[in-house]
Amino acid sequence: MIFNSFEFIFLFLPIVLIVYFLLNKWNFTIAKSWLLVSSFFFYGYWSPAYLPLIFLSLAVNFLTGHYLSKNHPDSRRKTMLTLGILFNAVLLGYFKYYDFFAENVNVLFDANIELKNALLPLAISFYTFQQIAYLVDSYRKETSEYNFLNYSLFVTFFPQLIAGPIVHHSQVMDQFQSPDNQRFQSKNVALGLFVFSIGLFKKVVIADTFAVWANKGYSMSESLTFVDSWLTTLAYTFQLYFDFSGYSDMAIGLGLLFNIHLPRNFFSPYKATSIQDFWRRWHITLSNFLTTYIYIPLGGNRKGRTRTYLNIFIVFLVSGFWHGAGWTFIIWGVMHGMASMVNRAWASSGRALSKPIAWLLTFLFVHLSWVFFRSPDLLTAVSVLRSMAGFNGVLLPKEFIQFLDLPIGSVLLFRFELGAPFIEIAIWTIIALVLVLFTKNSIQLRDDFTPKPWIAVTTACLFIYSATRLQQVSEFLYFNF
């Protein structure tokens, strides 16, 4: 089940919400049990076959965390932590990376390892990282004594289950136990609907509009020329942002309906003036996880410059591989690792760029790196980059040719290439750029929120208009990761 569907918005969500608060008046434990069962239903709506997998993961990680939090000998606890992390790594590796490694071994050694072609279980990358963090914190004795119900709800709470944010136990588990959160709170409902409507609009109106042009362009990468390749890649740059940040907004809004405050995951990343600044703003919960559980344990910046650069590189290599089992994702991670090392060296030199130049360089780098992130293979990525560099010709759109009164015989017709006139795509691109650069983001709007009639009207308009677009249901991009 996905957030941008009729069955979720007009059936599942109202039933779960109403029954939850009615049960809270009777018994808080039963209410939480209802929310947990609802989350399992949400997860298994499309593919019940993977419900046993998440049940197994929850049970093993909870029991392991329970053992680690006790006063057992350190050697046993360390062994148990290692086994717990290996369990999660093997689970993720089998479903997400087995075929990738098998394919590469077959190519390198002329082997004939049979591919599994297993369907990637929804959310496995997210709930695996979430539970690894819990195990490490249990080993450090930074967790409280939680029961299995609260733990399961922390992992599977449906607003953040499928594509994050990656929630830390300290951020939400106490909220599920708080008596204050048992009561229906109208302010949280108003705020939740406001943030949810912003996210829904981002997804079904903005992201899905850009998706048409991005998908069309990447499907014909070999025939793209200079102008259409740049508009294709810009379409994906904005599609990805509005798709993923829209999901995060909807997750935060849904959490507020249940009086649960989920962490922010985006904070205007395309305003960043350095790659380090970008990663403080983009997929914040993943960045925090990688910093806390990989970068710092590796030594962070405490073991000299060379080791610091190596640690940075490792973090981004892991980030790239976490996103997908493919060389395009690995190259994307390597690019960001190299850029982060260059950024750190530049900052330590004491020199500085002007803010506009720093922004432009950062945005262009992020934009170019998304080409590898989006491309299904390296050949497609190289083909698109060649087009962006002008190697496939620099043909002007029909509208420019007509405006300049030039011969139109050899002109590439944009309408037949990306499915819309050049002017329409250009206007949407400019609007998106203005939105990400010069307007408040949804977190700032949430923090400044005060219930007013005009805000209620705006929220209603965003929601109603978005609802009219729900006939064309589309998955969120990060469902694939």
From TrEMBL:
Record-stated family: Belongs to the membrane-bound acyltransferase family.
One GO BP annotation of this record: alginic acid biosynthetic process
Topological relation to the membrane, as annotated: Multi-pass membrane protein
InterPro entries (alphabetical): Ac/AlaTfrase_AlgI/DltB (IPR024194), AlgI (IPR028362), MB_O-acyltransferase (IPR051085), MBOAT_fam (IPR004299)
Protein name: Membrane-bound O-acyltransferase family protein
Transmembrane segments: 6-23, 52-68, 80-98, 118-136, 148-169, 189-214, 250-267, 279-296, 308-335, 356-373, 418-438
Molecular function (Gene Ontology), one example: acyltransferase activity
Any GO CC annotation of this UniProt entry: plasma membrane
UniProt KW Secreted keyword: no
Places the protein is found: Cell membrane
GTP-binding keyword on record: no
Keywords: Acyltransferase, Cell membrane, Membrane, Transferase, Transmembrane, Transmembrane helix
Superkingdom in the source lineage: Bacteria
